[in-house]
Design goal:
Blueprint: E1 4-10, H1 18-31, E2 35-41, E3 49-53, E4 73-84, E5 92-94, E6 101-103, H2 113-116, H3 122-127, E7 134-136, E8 143-145, E9 150-151, E10 156-166, H4 173-182, E11 188-194
């Protein structure tokens, strides 16, 4: 058993525009009836308060059957955040400069300590210290911020704005594209996970 979630992360939002973009998308979701305007105790992150599914939530998902779970709502988060998929870990990371995939686990899904070494502390540096979280690629040796790396199965995403849907059926690709358009065409990542 567990609580499933999906997070749409805006990869391009800045600290300055994250609040306004988050409010714009939330207003659209409320106007479309995808979520309710009132905040209730229905999510597991933040302060526990989010927006329950609205009467037209089916516009956002592949399976329109309603879900009757306590954790069933939307949480909007702004500020420097390393979003992740919950249980487990990423299998690989890809350098944004040379596009080399760095395997982070072996064939039995055990972490490869030497492969993880360049990433140690970099998420914390980016999210908590406000730094770039510079990683020197093991392949090309060039430096780049941790927020520019991509992760197998979109396990991690660094961003200033995220929309986490708790307990919803799988979000449709059309819906996630529309969220990206409402964000001004920003790049997005969709993380799926379980706690």
């Amino acid at each position: 058993m567990g609580d499933y979630f999906q997070t749409i992360v805006d990869l391009d939002a800045t600290e300055r525009d994250a609040q306004e973009l988050g409010a714009r998308v939330l207003d659209w979701l409320i106007a479309e009836g995808i979520v309710n305007a009132e905040r209730t105790d229905c999510v597991l992150d933040g302060d526990g308060y989010g927006h329950e599914p609205g009467p037209h939530f089916a516009k956002a998902v592949d399976d329109p059957e309603p879900v009757d779970l306590w954790s069933n709502g939307l949480h909007v988060q702004t500020g420097r955040t390393v979003f992740d998929s919950g249980q487990g870990d990423a299998g690989a990371a890809t350098c944004p400069l040379c596009l080399t995939e760095i395997r982070l686990v072996d064939e039995t899904w055990q972490p490869i300590e030497s492969a993880w070494a360049p990433f140690q502390g970099r998420f914390h540096d980016w999210a908590e210290q406000g730094g770039e979280g510079i990683v020197h690629c093991p392949s090309c040796a060039r430096p780049s911020g941790i927020d520019r790396w991509s992760w197998e199965d979109d396990y991690y995403a660094c961003g200033q704005l995220g929309f986490t849907f708790w307990g919803w059926a799988e979000l449709s690709s059309g819906f996630t594209r529309e969220v990206g358009r409402k964000l001004g065409g920003h790049r997005t990542a969709v993380l799926r996970g379980k706690l």
